[in-house]
Structure formats: structure tokens, C-alpha cells
Specification:
binds flavin mononucleotide; alpha+beta; 4-stranded antiparallel beta sheet; single chain; 40% helix; NADH Oxidase
Length: 218
């Protein structure tokens, strides 16, 4: 049965764009497997489409439940060899948020208006792929925020500098008493959305970046 669908799918592919092919395959998989979680998958695809970086926040605080849900998402992040080399500093103190908003020359000012900042740390001695692990955890927090209807934005810390030329990591270490062996990868600003942002426009998807079978093959 799958072979038949694969054959159909391949001929479909020669006629339509890759995007159409993917939709076709998803429909067929759903028919073959009535227990499929297609509905959930569609909600997840909406979530991905709606998540846009939010740099303007309202004054509304987060509930304790919302904060716990965000942190659970971070702690459930996949990590290489399950090393869980990350740690997180959760900041909701307004003075500290203001201080952290100066951690970079540009691209961090909105931290002062966020309800929450999750500072994502990792221990390079605990994992040689700590950047990947901490990046995934950062994104998990962002996706969970979107699922809660909250806005978020990634503030890059690694390899960045303050307006005075101090490495952003050093600045954050000093502000939050972070032990030296931990690196600061990012700060995820979270809060209630202070403006509307359009969902991702699928017209702008760069399908030319997808290569089938071999790089550059037609
Ligand atoms: C690794 C990484 C670092 C980023 N650093 C910053 C940052 O320091 N400041 C900022 O305002 N946005 C930052 N962003 C957000 C990007 O600018 C944003 O994701 C990109 O422009 C696409 O926009 P969208 O998130 O609204 O789809 C970062 C995103 C990533 C993935």
C-alpha cells in the first residue's frame, strides 16, 4: 500500500512543487494511519508560523503556572547523550531586567520591558556540543512561550559585546554571579505581546535551499 502511495507521490512530484508533494504525503499517511495525530501536527505548524520575535511587551506579569510551563519546556529539551549541560537563571526583577538590557550594544534594550528573562547557561566541560544543547533549550522556551500566547525574543550573548566593548558574557556573569565554568549562550526575553506581528508568510519560504537527493540536483 505504501509502495503504491510512493509511486503516486513520485509522479505527483514531477508535476507539482515540493510543497504540494509534502502535503500529499501527509494526507496519505493520515489515511493509512487513522490514529495519526494530524490535528495536533497542524496546530504545531500554526505555532511555528505564528512565532515571530517579539521586542515589545505589555506590563502584564506572567502567572506562576506560565513560568513553570516555560521552565518545564527548557528542562525537557533534548541534549546530546542526555548530558543536560544547561542551567537557567530566571529573572523577573525589574531592576535586574533593566541592567541586563545593557548586555549588548544593540538588540537587547527590550529586555527592560520583558516580564521574564531566562538566561541560558551551559557547561562546556559537561558537553562538547554545549552550544547546540543550549540553543535547542533556548528555542524550546520560545516555542513554549508562543504556545502560551506569549511573545519572546532571543538575545544573543555568546560572541557579543556591550556598548563599552565588554564581552556580553562577562557582563551577564557579573550581574548574576554566574560561576566561571558556565558559559552564557542567550537570554530569552518573554512577556505578553505588546504588538501584533504577522505570521510567517509562506510565499517567502526559500524552497531553493532544499535539495532533493543530491545537492543542486534539478
Ligand atoms: C541565534 C540567534 C540570535 C539572535 N539574536 C538576537 C538578538 O540579539 N537580538 C534580537 O533582537 N533578536 C535576535 N534574534 C532574533 C532574530 O533576529 C529573528 O529570529 C530573525 O530576525 C527572524 O525573525 P522572526 O523571529 O520574527 O521570525 C536572534 C535569533 C537567533 C536564532
Amino acid at each position: 500500500m505504501y509502495d503504491l502511495y510512493l509511486y503516486d507521490a513520485m509522479s505527483c512530484f514531477s508535476l507539482f512543487k515540493f510543497e504540494v508533494f509534502i502535503r500529499f504525503l501527509r494526507t496519505k499517511l493520515y489515511i493509512c494511519n487513522p490514529n495519526s495525530e494530524l490535528k495536533n501536527m497542524e496546530r504545531f505548524s500554526d505555532l511555528i508560523k505564528n512565532r515571530r520575535s517579539m521586542r515589545k511587551f505589555s506590563d502584564e506579569e506572567l502567572t506562576q503556572d506560565e513560568v513553570v510551563t516555560l521552565l518545564k519546556a527548557a528542562l525537557m529539551s533534548p541534549s546530546s547523550k542526555r548530558s543536560n549541560c544547561w542551567q537557567f537563571v530566571v529573572v523577573d526583577d525589574k531592576e535586574m531586567l533593566e541592567r541586563l538590557s545593557h548586555c549588548k550594544e544593540i538588540g537587547s534594550a527590550f529586555l527592560k520591558d520583558a516580564a521574564l528573562a531566562v538566561v541560558v547557561l551551559a557547561d562546556p566541560l559537561a558537553s562538547d556540543v554545549w552550544i547546540e544543547d543550549a540553543s535547542i533549550a533556548s528555542l524550546m522556551i520560545q516555542l513554549q512561550a508562543e504556545d502560551l500566547g506569549l511573545g519572546s525574543c532571543w538575545v544573543q550573548i555568546r560572541e557579543r559585546y556591550t556598548a563599552e566593548g565588554v564581552p556580553s558574557g562577562e557582563f551577564v556573569h557579573a550581574a548574576l554571579d554566574i560561576p566561571l565554568q558556565l558559559q552564557v549562550l542567550s537570554i530569552i526575553a518573554v512577556g505578553h505581546k505588546g504588538m501584533e506581528r504577522k505570521p510567517f508568510n509562506e510565499e517567502h519560504l526559500q524552497w531553493e535551499k532544499i535539495h532533493l537527493h543530491k545537492y543542486g540536483a534539478e
